[in-house]
Design the sequence.
């Protein structure tokens, strides 16, 4: 029983003696320090705390935590904590635990008011806009130097990146695009069947896929796949000091790491968009001909007449812009990554979230512009 | 031909902060040609931060770094030019992981020399052999041990025969034999290339084996509290913090 392990005695004026006995290990359980503090409350005249530990059998850090708490409490209340009655080992342990932390070694962490936090956030946002502009500027300079043959460009590396963000992405892009085509066809069918105009499913699927859905689907997939991998790869290079090693050699990380990736995505995204368009139309075709019973030849003719070359251009422009967005978000986050494993995770998440957000915003802007230009 | 910069580094009243947190202030030291200069002090005292200010990765908040009398942080073009004359061995080796060891060592040569690819390959072989990695040119960094990675990093650092080489915690994470091997390499490279060497470390064996000049940093004082040959400091220093560090706490002297 815990109560038997501790008893109190007021043996001298203003002195509280704690008698300790039995097993005080974590596994055996022990009384709370609040029992002693309760005594302090009852007997406010106490100015000295003593221990009598002749019947104390076993102890571990559980006992130490009890004493640690008590000694802090005594310090706060101005009560003398007399440790002479404690066993030798306990006294040594307590010395180490109570060693005063030298104030200068603890970094100051000032608490911030709400206003300061809002201000801090605003400064952070302007800082990130500035770093984005800096980054875009560096990319422009890098491209200019590349065009003049002045920057270092490793062809094999570029081809490797090109491969990973093209052929490697095809299975996923195929699956998602076909399914989007299927969904569009089914949704179209629900309404158009009411008017006996199912054949216009071909127009809906064709225009929607080619104009925007192919590019958006490819964009979102590539943001999750390639954008995340750019951020993680460059982030780990930052952690491993590989980017520092480039800088001290006078090599711009933007020229060396970002431009090949940006170029690869800018080349591949329009092509992937075309591929996604085709796959989406295929999905719609399969549903229309196979499930909804439309004439395949008629469906194909309708698609051809509905999808104009201008639609194709709009889709390709989407793809091109998304390529820039994904590469810039991934690389910016990767290069700006902190030097820990957690920072790499944050950089990767931020890269994907930002890329997807900007893809949607860019789609809205392009759609609006097309509306104004009547394209 | 462009005049080569003299490898003498001087720090004047250097102060370094991280945001609002002051790391170091009022540093004044000079690295002479041919020195193996040790920047030492306990963990977290700002050794690596000083290194960053010396190799162009962190701009000082006050004071100047001079290379051969020229202000390193005043002019980016000059800074780039100076940086081509220095090599850095990072704590982790910092090899580019998508490159083989050969490609890692070759990159500086491809960028800053007009040599043919055959000549570059020969230099790469030589530099790898110099650090005991002959025949490893086609290995990727992930395929070799930590000690080998550091040596490969050293081969890359000396690819262009720099006049100054910086080492960031060279023996960190190495077994005593590998650490000793690296110390010997540092001495050999100083002798073979005639380079000036700056080593940031807190490893006592390395400090006494390689160093002929040093500064001692203290985290509490936030500046350097001693300078000179580490062996002289051990023999004559009266500063209890320095003596405690250099004797691993075995010898204490009373504070004045």
Sequence:
């Amino acid at each position: 029983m815990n109560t038997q392990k501790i008893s109190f005695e007021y043996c001298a004026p203003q002195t509280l003696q704690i008698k300790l006995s039995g097993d005080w290990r974590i596994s055996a359980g022990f009384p709370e320090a609040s029992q002693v503090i309760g005594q302090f409350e009852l007997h406010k005249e106490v100015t000295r705390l003593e221990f009598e530990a002749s019947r104390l059998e076993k102890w571990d850090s559980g006992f130490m935590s009890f004493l640690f708490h008590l000694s802090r409490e005594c310090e706060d209340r101005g009560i003398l904590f007399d440790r002479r009655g404690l066993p030798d080992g306990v006294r040594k342990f307590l010395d180490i635990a109570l060693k005063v932390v030298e104030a200068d070694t603890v970094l100051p962490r000032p608490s911030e008011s709400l206003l300061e936090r809002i201000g801090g956030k605003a400064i952070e946002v302007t800082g990130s806009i500035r770093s984005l502009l800096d980054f875009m500027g560096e990319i422009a300079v890098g491209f200019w130097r590349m065009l003049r043959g002045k920057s270092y460009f490793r062809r094999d590396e570029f081809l490797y990146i090109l491969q990973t963000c093209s052929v490697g992405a095809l299975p996923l892009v195929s699956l998602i695009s076909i399914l989007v085509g299927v969904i569009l066809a089914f949704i179209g069918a629900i309404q158009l069947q009411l008017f006996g105009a199912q054949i216009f499913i071909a127009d809906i699927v064709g225009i929607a896929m080619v104009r925007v859905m192919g590019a958006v689907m490819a964009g979102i997939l590539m943001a999750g796949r390639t954008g995340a991998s750019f951020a993680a790869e460059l982030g780990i290079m930052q952690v491993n000091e590989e980017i520092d090693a480039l800088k001290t050699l006078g090599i711009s990380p933007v020229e060396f790491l970002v431009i090949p990736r940006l170029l690869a995505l800018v080349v591949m995204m329009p092509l992937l968009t075309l591929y996604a368009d085709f796959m989406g139309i295929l999905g719609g075709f399969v549903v229309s001909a196979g499930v909804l019973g439309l004439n395949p030849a008629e469906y194909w003719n309708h698609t051809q007449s509905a999808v104009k070359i201008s639609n194709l251009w709009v889709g390709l422009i989407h793809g091109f812009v998304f390529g820039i967005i994904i590469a810039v978000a991934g690389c910016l986050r990767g290069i700006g990554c902190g030097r820990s494993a957690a920072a790499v995770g944050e950089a990767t998440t931020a890269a994907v979230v930002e890329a997807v957000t900007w893809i949607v915003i860019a789609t809205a802007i392009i759609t609006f512009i097309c509306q104004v230009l009547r394209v | 031909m462009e005049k080569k910069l003299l490898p003498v580094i001087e720090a004047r009243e250097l102060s370094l902060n991280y945001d609002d947190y002051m790391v170091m202030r009022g540093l004044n030291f000079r690295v002479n040609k041919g020195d193996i200069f040790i920047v030492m002090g306990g963990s977290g005292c700002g050794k690596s931060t000083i290194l960053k200010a010396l190799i162009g990765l962190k701009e000082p908040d006050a004071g100047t770094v001079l290379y051969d009398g020229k202000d390193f942080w005043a002019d980016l073009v000059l800074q780039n030019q100076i940086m081509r004359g220095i090599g850095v061995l990072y704590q982790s080796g910092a090899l580019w992981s998508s490159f083989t060891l050969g490609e890692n060592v070759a990159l500086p040569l491809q960028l800053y020399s007009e040599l043919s690819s055959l000549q570059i390959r020969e230099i790469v072989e030589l530099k790898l052999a110099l650090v005991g990695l002959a025949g490893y040119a086609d290995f990727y960094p992930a395929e070799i041990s930590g000690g080998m990675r550091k040596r490969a990093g050293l081969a890359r650092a000396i690819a262009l025969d720099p006049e100054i080489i910086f080492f960031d915690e060279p023996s960190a994470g190495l077994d005593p034999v590998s650490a000793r091997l690296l110390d010997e390499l540092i001495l050999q490279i100083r002798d073979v290339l005639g380079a000036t060497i700056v080593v940031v470390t807190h490893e006592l064996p390395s400090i006494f084996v390689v160093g002929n000049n040093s500064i001692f940093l203290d985290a509490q004082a936030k500046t350097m509290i001693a300078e000179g040959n580490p062996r002289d400091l051990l023999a004559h220093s009266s500063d209890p913090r320095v003596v405690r560090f250099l004797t691993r706490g075995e010898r204490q002297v009373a504070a004045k």
Summary: Confidence is low (pLDDT under 50) at residues 1-5 of chain B.
